[in-house]
Design goal:
The protein has 859 residues and is α/β, with parallel strands linked by helices. The relative contact order is 0.06. Bound molecules: guanosine-5'-diphosphate-alpha-D-mannose (GDD) and manganese (II) ion. Residues 8-10, 12, 38, 40, 68-70, 73, 90-92, 94, 137, 154, 156, 175, 201, 206-208 line the site of guanosine-5'-diphosphate-alpha-D-mannose.
Length: 859
């Protein structure tokens, strides 16, 4: 093997002898190599130690006089090297010399361009490293992984062909020359990782310092296509700092004069943002700005600004409402968070790096990371701030009546809420934390699935598409059975792919568990079972599994997990099975296939619908290239889709029912975005269509969440208010109940006049003294689980308070049933406006009082 081994040193006197004797005593390296020590002005006698070795071995010493720098040293060493293959290692024996041969061989053989001694692949590890160093290294590695597919891109132990160094910019600095090398040949390089055990040094100290970490961050941002430098960052910070004064001043002034949180923070934001844009474009990012107002750039700036603003509303509301922080203090952390969004948005989106150009692939990767982080942050803050919707309150009621299963849904949603509220308290956060975690699990499995089907870039885009599609965004926030269903659905797909395509037998255990947990979430998951069967029938390779025990054991595991539902149904006359089958086998037939398309466009976004169709087409067109993979995607999307299509010919579906089936197709949709030159220019057109769709969807979610919590100045609450604001509504109901208590001296029975919405929402938000809340089943009407929970009371002399979501619910009619028969002296229908603390009108509450309850006479 001929190669040059470069060893940078800075005060390593104690390590030179053990290192060089280690290297020269190896018999795997032969004797056709040189060692180049590049010293950066060590003061501990390192050069003298090296000179001792020069007498007997092929060791060269380069003594640099410039500013000490690791990258600079390696560049100098490479320039002086005699051979074509270069290897770099630390002098402190952290990198095992006996792995040198394995590291260098692939480059010498020409099978690979770069090899990396990796701590983070199977067989690699770190020994004796302090905890914080491990942690830092991991964190650094994770950041790098978003742009680079090497597991240990921050390694200092690597080999490469000498000519590659020419691609590195002359002003590269710092510790991470490897990352720079890896990024130059984007996608073209053949890279191999060799596992190593990294051990901490025995002599001397590490030279890695805080400035290196900072430099690394800046380097990452630049490589990722952002414009960042200490220069722009510090100017941006200074502008931002001045902007804070504008912001805080206006905010304080307005809240001091009675403005609401929303109008104060939005006004002050707009003022500060205009101020900042003027200064940033003229000054901080001056070099990246055309000098005159560019509409595209300004529109992007506004978009980032609106995102930042909508997020900060959430943070403000969260600090003020949940943590009782005074608004004049809460504005500071809120501003800080949005400054970060603004800065990253400016660096990557408003004023991105153009020279040298950044590949589309990297841009999409960065967009994926940015959007995913933004979505997670948005969910994290709003899941506590936004009030429950009635559905969530109903499932919370499940958790107050823990059982093996429930009438209208299997139990997973209840168990998750039970667990969440047991840990975090009876509040919105406790209810929703399960959904939030399910969202993360779904993202992780989707990523892994898409990695296996396609590649890492596709996987990142898959997650991006998933979180911006309405169903994906919502299921990570709202605690409904769909949250665990979606997570379990992707997990099942992931293990199915591993078992059926990759032939991994352990994956069957994963299938059993994911499938079992999924069917505990919602019965729809059963469709994946049918799809699996169809796949196994069609694919001869996978069919062999039928002769092995694994699939049957998986079914057994799933059945075991599902057994609570079976037991509950046995004890309750198969109530929920009958209900679910009754849903489909409805008596009134209705053609609804045209609606189905609209529903799909709603859960996927319109661009998503088009992309889905094109993805199916592309699978058909490219079927031959990877038949098994394409069959897998087609079957796991197509079978559930056909089932829904069939149902839609005679019955209408709820709009979100098809959501999970698209999970199998999202990787293909994401893959298409990255393709050039296939199917004409469809991928390019798709890319163009997705961009605004992603921005608009994300803006819509942030906007709606801001609207339902802090409000949007000038926009009244009218659209959804009968379903929402139950916190304030319940307080109003409690007031009315108090009045009744006073005048009659008796505790009223409060009846939510809907199947389950009103009763559940009232129950969740009712504070001590807790109201006696019932649902419509009191009058012999169907009320889902309430019919199980609340046995019909005997006739009672107590006053009755009827609460309606809307007025009609309190009118006696065919729709609501003749509930008046069961009451004595039903009063008029009253309405009361419900206000928020700050006086904003939220909604109207309809109620009606009655004198007594005759008991339910209908059987
Ligand atoms: N010429 C020169 N100039 N050499 C330097 C300089 C410098 O400015 N700074 C450090 N070195 C030498 C050290 O003498 C040592 O041989 C090698 O570079 C690594 O430096 P350490 O100070 O031991 O770094 P570390 O152990 O904390 O970091 C190691 O792990 C990191 C990954 O977590 C190195 O391998 C890094 O390259 C790696 O990124
Ligand atoms: Mn070291």
């Amino acid at each position: 093997m001929t190669f040059s081994l470069i060893i940078p040193t800075l005060n390593e006197a104690g390590n030179i002898d053990p290192l060089l004797s280690g290297i020269f005593s190896l018999d795997t390296l032969g004797n056709q190599f040189e060692v180049i020590i590049v010293d950066d002005g060590s003061t501990d006698g390192t050069p003298d130690k090296v000179r001792q070795w020069q007498k007997t071995h092929d060791v060269r010493l380069i003594e640099r006089r410039a500013q000490p720098d690791l990258t600079g040293s390696i560049l100098d060493g490479t320039a002086a090297a005699r051979y074509e293959v270069i290897a770099v290692m630390d002098a402190d024996l952290s990198h095992p010399p006996d792995r040198l041969a394995a590291l260098i061989q692939p480059v010498v053989d020409g099978t690979h361009d770069i090899t990396v001694g990796s701590r983070y692949i199977a067989g690699g590890n770190t020994i004796n490293w302090p905890f914080y160093r491990r942690w830092l290294s991991r964190a650094g590695g994770w950041l790098a992984r978003s742009i680079c597919d090497v597991n240990d891109a921050t390694s200092g132990f690597f080999a490469f062909r000498k000519e590659l160094i020419g691609n590195i910019t002359k002003n590269a600095r710092g510790y991470k020359i490897l990352l720079e090398l890896l990024m130059t040949g984007q996608g073209q390089l053949r890279i191999k990782e060799i596992p190593i055990s990294f051990r901490d040094r025995q002599h001397g100290n590490s030279k890695l310092s805080l400035t290196h970490h900072l430099a690394y961050l800046l380097q990452l941002i630049t490589l990722a296509g952002g414009t960042v430098s200490l220069h722009t960052a510090s100017r941006f910070a200074l502008v931002g700092f001045l902007g804070v004064f504008v912001d805080v001043f206006i905010f304080q002034w307005m809240t001091g004069h009675g403005a609401s949180l929303a109008s104060a923070h939005i006004s002050s934001f707009i003022a500060a943002a205009s101020f900042n844009y003027a200064l940033n474009s003229k000054w901080s990012f001056r070099l990246h700005h055309a000098g005159h107002l560019q509409w595209k750039q300004f529109a992007r700036f506004l978009t980032v600004g609106v995102f930042a603003m909508l997020l900060r509303g959430a943070i403000l509301a969260w600090l003020v409402h949940t943590w009782d922080m005074p608004a004049e203090w809460a504005i500071f952390p809120a501003i800080l968070t949005t400054a970060m969004v603004n800065y990253l948005g400016s660096a990557f989106y408003v004023f991105p790096r153009t020279e040298p150009p950044v590949s589309t692939d990297i841009r999409w990767r960065i967009a994926s990371v940015g959007v995913a982080c933004f979505v997670i942050l948005l969910r994290l803050v709003y899941m506590d701030v936004a009030q429950l919707i009635p559905d969530e309150a109903y499932y919370w009621q499940y958790a107050q009546h823990m059982a093996l299963s429930f009438f209208d849904h299997p139990p997973m949603v209840a168990w998750l809420i039970w667990l969440g509220t047991a840990l975090a308290g009876q509040n919105e956060f406790g209810v929703r934390i399960g959904a939030f975690l399910c969202g993360l699990i779904a993202m992780a499995y989707l990523f892994a699935l898409a990695c296996n089907l396609y590649d890492k870039s596709t996987a990142m885009r898959s997650v991006l598409l998933f979180v911006i599609m309405p169903f994906g965004f919502a299921t990570g926030l709202a605690m409904t059975p769909d949250a665990p269903l979606i997570a379990a659905w992707v997990a099942t797909l992931y293990y199915m792919e591993r078992a059926l395509l990759a032939n991994k037998s352990q994956a069957w255990l994963g299938i059993g568990i994911a499938f079992g947990l999924g069917i505990l979430s919602k019965y729809t998951l059963g469709l994946l079972g049918i799809a699996a069967l169809v796949y196994v029938i069609l694919d001869p390779v996978a069919r062999r599994w039928l002769l092995r025990p694994h699939p049957y054991l998986a079914v057994l595991v799933a059945l075991l997990l599902f057994s609570p539902v079976i037991i509950w149904n046995m004890e309750n006359n198969w109530a929920s099975f009958l209900f679910q089958t009754g849903r489909v086998g409805n008596t009134q037939h209705e053609f609804a296939t045209h609606q189905l398309l609209l529903q799909i466009a709603t859960v996927l976004t319109p661009v998503g619908l088009v992309a889905a169709v094109l993805a199916l087409r592309s699978i058909a067109l490219h079927y031959r290239e990877a038949p098994r993979k394409h069959l897998f995607i087609a079957v796991f999307t197509g079978v559930p889709l056909l089932v829904f299509l069939a149902i839609s010919t005679f019955d209408s579906l709820r709009f979100h029912w098809t959501s999970p089936l698209w999970l199998a197709l999202i990787p293909t949709m994401a893959w298409m975005i990255g393709q050039n030159g296939i199917s004409g220019n469809i991928p390019a057109q798709l890319r163009t269509a997705w961009r605004p769709m992603i921005t608009i969807s994300l803006l819509a979610y942030a906007f709606v969440l801001h609207y339902v919590t802090l409000g949007i100045p000038g926009l009244p609450y009218q659209f959804l208010s009968e379903h929402y604001f139950w916190k304030e509504t319940t307080a109003e109901v409690e007031k009315i109940a108090g009045e009744i208590r006073q005048t009659t001296g008796k505790e009223p029975i409060v009846v939510g006049m809907s199947k389950w919405s009103a009763a559940s929402a009232l129950a969740f938000y009712s504070k001590a003294p807790v109201l006696d809340i019932q649902s419509r089943n009191l009058f012999g009407q169907h009320a889902a689980m309430y019919s199980f929970w609340n046995p019909i009371p005997a006739p009672s002399g107590r006053p009755v308070l009827l609460i309606g979501m809307k007025q009609q619910a309190l009118e006696s009619s065919a729709a609501t049933g003749n509930f008046e028969d069961k009451l004595i002296n039903t009063g008029e229908i009253h309405s009361r406006p419900v206000y928020r603390q700050d006086g904003l009108l939220l909604r109207t509450l309809y109620y009606r009082t009655a004198e007594g309850y005759r008991g339910n006479t209908t059987p």
